[in-house]
Structure formats: structure tokens, C-alpha cells
Amino acid sequence: MSNELVFYTHPMSRGRVVRWMLEELGEPYRTEQLDYGSTMKAPAYLAINPMGKVPALRHGETVVTEGAAICAYLADAFPAAGLAPPPTSPARGDYYRWLFFAAAPMESAMINKALGVAPAADQERMVGWGNYDLALDTLEKAVAGREFLAGDRFSAADLYVSGLIGWGLQTGGIPQRPAFQDFVARLSARPAAVRAREIDDGLLAA
Q: What are the residue ranges in the chain where pLDDT is below 50?
């Protein structure tokens, strides 16, 4: 069975952060570009992701959906790239912590704020992010004054968190605080990040 990497995406989607991850790996992959409302909801793709959403990844017989899960999977599937701390490293805890904090509490807080939905004070314990300000301040403390989120080298956690913050800075979901701006500016200058943006921007322009 082929171990080909097939990346299902749209250039204006959460797939942009997975593209960056694939470019960091340096492994060959094939892109299947889908369109909202048509091929993304067609039976062929629903067999890959019944949600009809991107991104998704097929690696041989393995299918992974959800951006953070794809990044974590690729870091483990291709350990030579060094995009995750070793399983026994103390940094592995921070790696998991911030990768999935960004994917769940922080993104949920941002989306709910954009939709004008906020839990009442007595409901905050029911939601994973508590409230938007709490989630935002927690994220700021995580990135402020730190070169990397997990140990002393770049990892998929830095990539994913930077991608989320960058999206938030562009859309207004995250305020223009210096800690956020500095973190994104530094990481988005990585050669793989630049290549990934050029690819997706080129697809949008086509």
C-alpha cells in the first residue's frame, strides 16, 4: 500500500496551517483542492471526512482530520523533522498543552466572540474556555517573552498556535498586543511558512 501523503484543503481555510506543517516536514505530498458547497460535500470527500470540512490528510490507509490532530500526527509520523519533543521529554507536556489549548478553548472563545455569544458568569464553569478574556490572557502569558512554547526548539505547537494567533490578528478575533504580534512575526518568517503562504496565495489567485 502506498504511503503517499494526500492533503485535502481549500486555500482560504484552516488548511493553511497544515500546509505550513507539510512544508516544514519537507516530505512530498499531493494536494486535493476542494470547493465549498460542491466537492467538499460530494460523496467522494464525505467518505474521507463525513463533516464535509477541510483540512484532512490521508497517509496510506490512515485518515486524519482536524488541524491540530493532523499536525500532531505528522510530527509523530515523521520524527526526523524534529517537530515534537521526545515522548519522555518534560517539554512534551507543554507541547500537548498549548497545541490543544489553541485548538479547543482558544478557538472556541474566538468563534463565540465573533458570533456575539458569551456565557453568563454562572455558566463559565460549563465551557472549556471560561470566558474570552481569560482564554486570551492565558494565551498571552504563554507566548510573551518565550522563543518556543515547548522546550528549546520549534515544534508543531508553535506552528499551530502561531497560525491561530495570526488568523485572529487578521480578523480581529485577537487584539493587536505586542506579545502576539512578536510571536507571529518571528515564526511566520520561517522559510516553510513563507513557502506555504505563497502556495496557498497562488491557488487563490489562480
A: 1
CATH value at residue 185: 1.20.1050.10
Q: Is residue 65 helix, strand or coil?
A: strand
Question: Residue 32: inside a domain, yes or no?
Answer: yes
* Cell numbers for 3: 504511503
Q: What are phi and psi of 31, to 5 degrees?
A: -100, 130
* Residues 81/26, Cβ–Cβ less than 8 Å: yes
Burial of 77-116, coded b for 16+ CB within 10 Å and e otherwise, reads bbeeeebbbeeeeebbebbbebbbbbbebbbbbbebbeee
| pLDDT tens readout for residues 127-164 | 999 999 999 999 999 999 999 999 999 999 999 999 99
